[in-house]
């Protein structure tokens, strides 16, 4: 029975793969021409940026400040004990900016936005609002998917930059409070260890993660059929599949960047 269930799951996945690839391609092609779309779609984009980016700033600031400060205090004390205190200035950008930062931001956005997007679109499907848009000649991809795709992608990108800034600034503030003289050494040493490769990798990860979250959430939102009981299931699937997509894409980027 287990083998049969796994086999049916694999068959179901690959049978829907062509539709998923077509959906992704259609989203990308519509996103490239978004500026020519209807004005209402731009309002959807603004609202998505407000919810995903602006409202997430406080929690991202708290997480990044806590993470950066903890890494600096614990890591610096340990490295000093083995006579390698200066290594902390190379580890902080690597951990905060390149590895942990993009992942934490993507997880926060997934938890806040993926469920909201999937359940919202699922509710529109069950209430026949999608059919109403089509009857008026409005493309649901242009009006509903693309603004959310761009809004989430831009939000993850800017939140990752914000996370890196707060995560690297937090230790400077703590150092200034504890030892003002050392604070003037912190920033120059830190800037010397922030490489262009680290910045580019962080940017690539943030953009890819944003795309994964938005496409997954909208895809499962539209997969709701008729029953309203499918809406929470779509939200759960959007979150779980987004987490899997983020982790897999992170592994791929790490492998490619190490070549």
How would you describe the overall organization of this protein?
Helix 1 crosses helix 6 and helix 2 packs parallel to helix 6 (140-178). This protein is mostly helical. The mean pLDDT is 84. 86% of the residues lie in helices and 0% in strands. It starts with a helix and ends with a helix. The chain is elongated. The protein contains nine helices and no strands. It has helices spanning 2-31, 39-52, 57-81, 88-126, 129-135, 140-178, 180-192, 196-222, 230-257.
Core attributes:
259 residues; 9 helices; mainly alpha
Number of helical regions: 9
Low-pLDDT windows of residues: none
Could you tell me the strand content as a percent range? Answer: under 5%
| Structural class based on helices, strands and sheet pairing | mainly alpha
Give the strand tally. Answer: 0
Radius of gyration: 21 Å
Write the H/E string, N to C.
Answer: HHHHHHHHH
Task: Briefly summarize what is shown.
By secondary structure, the chain is mainly α.
Topology:
Layout: H1 2-31, H2 39-52, H3 57-81, H4 88-126, H5 129-135, H6 140-178, H7 180-192, H8 196-222, H9 230-257
Helix pairs in contact: 1-6, 2-6, 3-4, 3-6, 4-6, 4-7, 4-8, 4-9, 6-7, 6-8, 8-9
């Amino acid at each position: 029975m287990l083998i049969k269930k796994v086999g049916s799951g694999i068959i179901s996945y690959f049978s829907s793969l062509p539709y998923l690839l077509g959906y992704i391609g259609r989203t990308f092609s519509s996103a490239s021409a978004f500026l020519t779309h209807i004005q209402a779609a731009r309002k959807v984009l603004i609202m998505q940026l407000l919810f995903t980016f602006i409202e997430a700033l406080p929690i991202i600031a708290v997480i990044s400040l806590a993470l950066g400060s903890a890494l600096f205090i614990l890591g610096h004390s340990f490295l000093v004990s083995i006579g390698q205190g200066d290594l902390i200035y190379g580890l902080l950008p690597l951990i905060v900016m390149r590895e942990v930062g993009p992942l934490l931001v993507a997880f926060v956005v997934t938890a806040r936005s993926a469920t909201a997007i999937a359940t919202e679109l699922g509710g529109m499907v069950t209430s026949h609002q999608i059919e109403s848009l089509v009857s008026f000649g409005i493309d649901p991809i242009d009006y509903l998917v693309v603004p959310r795709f761009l809004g989430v992608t831009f939000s993850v990108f800017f939140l990752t930059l914000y996370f890196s800034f707060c995560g690297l600034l937090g230790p400077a503030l703590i150092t200034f409070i504890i030892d003002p003289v050392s604070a003037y050494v912190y920033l120059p040493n830190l800037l010397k260890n922030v490489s262009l490769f680290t910045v580019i990798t962080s940017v690539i990860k943030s953009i890819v993660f944003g795309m994964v979250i938005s496409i997954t959430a909208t895809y499962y939102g539209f997969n709701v059929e008729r029953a309203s009981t499918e809406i929470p299931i779509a939200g759960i699937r959007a979150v779980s599949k987004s987490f899997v997509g983020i982790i897999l894409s992170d592994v791929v980027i790490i492998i490619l960047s190490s070549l």
